[in-house]
Design goal:
GO terms for molecular function: acyltransferase activity, transferring groups other than amino-acyl groups. Belongs to the thiolase-like superfamily. Chalcone/stilbene synthases family. This is Type III polyketide synthase. Pfam families: Chal_sti_synt_C (PF02797), Chal_sti_synt_N (PF00195). By secondary structure, this protein is α+β, with helices and mostly antiparallel strands. The protein folds into 2 domains: about 200 residues, Thiolase/Chalcone synthase (Peroxisomal Thiolase, Chain A, domain 1); about 140 residues, Peroxisomal Thiolase, Chain A, domain 1. The protein has 11 helices and 13 strands.
C-alpha cells in the first residue's frame, strides 16, 4: 500500500436559494408544456429521484427564461468563486491553517468555464502565496470529486510536508435550458443541485486527522462516450444521459471495484462502509445489488441526495463529510461514475 495522505478537514458551502421538489415539478410542468404527453409520462421521475430539496445559485424563476452563454458564464464565475471562498475558508479554519499555508490548490468543475481559472481568481481574494502550485481540472463531471481527491492526494504524496487544498464546485442550475424538451433534460431537472466542497490534505500520518487517504484507481469503459456528458449548444450546455446507467452498474462495477481493492491488499469484506456518489435513487439501488450491500450502508449517500440533490462532482465529498461527521470509522471505499464513461475509486480510513 502506498504512503497514506492525511485528510485534515472537509467543508461544504451551498448557495442561498432552496428549491423544494414540489416547486420544481410545478415549474417544469409549465416549462415542458410544449410536450405535455412526454412530461406526463416522465413526471414520476421527480417523486422517484430521492430528492426533496436542493440549493440553487439562482431563484426558481430563472429556470423558466432563456439565457445565453455570456450571462451563464458571468453567473458561474460570480457564484462559483463565492462558494469556493466559503468552503475553502471553513476547511482551512478547521485545519488550523490560513491561505498562506497552502502550497498547492486543485480546482475541479465541469458546469461552467472561466479563464483565468477559478483558482487564479482565488489567489487574490483568499490571499494565496504567489508561488502556489495550481491545477485546474475540467470535464470529469460527476466523478470529479472522487478523481479530484485522488489527484490532490497524489500531489500531496509527492510533496512531503506540503499542504494541498482541493476545491470542487458545480453549478448545475446554470446548465438548465428550458427550450430543450427531452427526456434527459427532465431527468436532470429532477436531480441536479448546486454546491461546493473543500478538503485540506497533507502527506503522512497527522495526529487528529479525521481520515487517511490510502489509494485510488479508475476504470474507463471503451466505446462509452455517449453515456454521460454535455453537448455544447449555442446558448449553453445540453445534458447527455444516453444509456441505462443502473444496468451498467449492476453488470460491471463490482469486478472493477474488486480489482481496485485487491491492488491495495484488501477486499469488500474488509470495508466498514462505502462513500458513493448518489447519481440518483436507481443508481444507489444498483450499487446495493451489485455489491450485495445492506440497506443502511448507503445511508449517507441517500441523505445527501435527499437534502441537496445530485451536485455532480461535489456530492461524493459531501457524503464523505457526512460519514466523518457521524463518527464513522474504518475502511471506506469511495465510488463515483462520470463522463468517459469512467468509474472513480478511492480508499479512505476514517477515525
Amino acid at each position: 500500500m502506498t504512503e497514506p495522505v492525511s485528510i485534515l478537514s472537509v467543508a461544504e458551502a451551498f448557495p442561498p436559494h432552496r428549491l423544494r421538489q414540489a416547486e420544481v415539478v410545478g415549474l417544469c410542468r409549465d416549462v415542458f408544456a410544449g410536450r405535455p404527453e412526454m412530461f406526463a409520462r416522465l413526471e414520476e421521475a421527480y417523486g422517484n429521484a430521492g430528492v426533496e430539496t436542493r440549493s440553487s445559485c439562482v431563484p426558481i424563476e430563472w429556470y423558466n427564461e432563456p439565457h445565453g452563454w455570456p450571462e451563464r458564464a458571468a453567473l458561474f464565475q460570480e457564484n462559483a468563486l463565492a462558494l469556493l471562498e466559503a468552503a475553502a475558508t471553513e476547511a482551512l479554519s478547521q485545519a488550523g491553517l490560513t491561505a498562506q499555508d497552502v502550497d498547492t490548490v486543485v480546482a475541479v468543475s465541469t458546469t461552467g468555464i472561466a479563464t483565468p481559472s477559478l483558482d487564479a481568481h482565488l489567489l487574490n481574494s483568499l490571499g494565496f502565496r504567489s508561488d502556489i502550485n495550481r491545477l485546474p481540472i475540467f470535464g470529469l463531471g460527476c466523478v470529479g470529486g472522487v478523481t479530484g481527491l485522488a489527484r490532490a492526494a497524489d500531489m500531496a504524496r509527492t510533496r512531503p510536508g506540503q499542504t494541498v487544498l482541493l476545491l470542487v464546485v458545480e453549478l448545475c442550475a446554470l446548465t438548465f435550458r428550458p427550450q430543450e424538451l427531452t427526456k434527459a433534460n427532465i431527468i436532470a431537472s429532477a436531480l441536479f443541485g448546486d454546491g461546493a466542497a473543500a478538503i485540506v490534505l497533507r502527506s503522512g500520518e497527522e495526529a487528529g486527522a479525521p481520515a487517511r487517504y490510502l489509494g485510488s484507481a479508475e476504470h474507463t469503459w471503451p466505446n462509452s462516450l455517449d453515456i454521460m456528458g454535455w453537448r455544447v449548444e449555442d446558448d449553453g450546455l445540453g445534458v447527455i444521459f444516453s444509456r441505462d446507467i443502473p444496468s451498467l452498474v449492476r453488470q460491471d462495477v463490482r469486478p472493477a471495484m474488486e480489482r481496485f481493492l485487491e491492488s491495495l491488499d484488501t477486499d469488500l469484506s474488509a470495508l466498514a462502509g462505502i462513500v458513493a456518489h448518489p447519481g440518483g435513487r436507481k443508481v444507489l439501488e444498483a450499487y446495493e445489488g451489485a455489491l450485495d450491500l445492506a440497506p443502511d450502508v448507503l445511508r449517507h449517500s441517500r441523505a445527501v441526495l435527499k437534502d441537496q440533490g445530485n451536485m455532480s462532482a461535489v456530492t461524493a465529498l459531501c457524503v464523505l463529510n457526512r460519514a466523518i461527521g457521524a463518527g464513522d470509522t474504518g475502511l471506506h471505499a469511495m465510488l463515483a461514475l462520470g463522463p468517459g464513461f469512467t468509474a472513480g475509486f478511492g480508499l479512505v480510513d476514517l477515525g
